[in-house]
What does this fold into?
Amino acid sequence: MKLQQQLQKHRTDLIIAVGGLVLIALVSRYGFNWQLGYTVAMFIASIIGFIPIGLQAGSALRVRVISIDLLVSIAVIGALVIGEYNESAIVTFLFYSGHC
It folds into this structure.
C-alpha cells in the first residue's frame, strides 16, 4: 500500500521515465540501427510502466472489481509473453499519459 502511494506521488516522473525510454529505444533502432538497445529499452520501459498499473489492478481484484488497470495489465502481460516489448511499453505510456 505504501509503495502504491509513493508511485502515485511520482506519477509524472514515471511518465517521463517511460516516455524517455521509449524515445531512447526509437533512437537506438532508427538512428543507430541497434536492435539490442531498442529491445532492452522497450523491455525496461514496459516493466517500469507495468509495476504501478499491476499494483492497482491487484488492489482492485482484492475487492472484486474489474478496472481498466486490470485490462491494461492483461494487455501488457500478453505483449510481454509474446515478445512484443514495444507494444507493452507504448500501452503503458499511453495509459499514463491519459491519466495526467
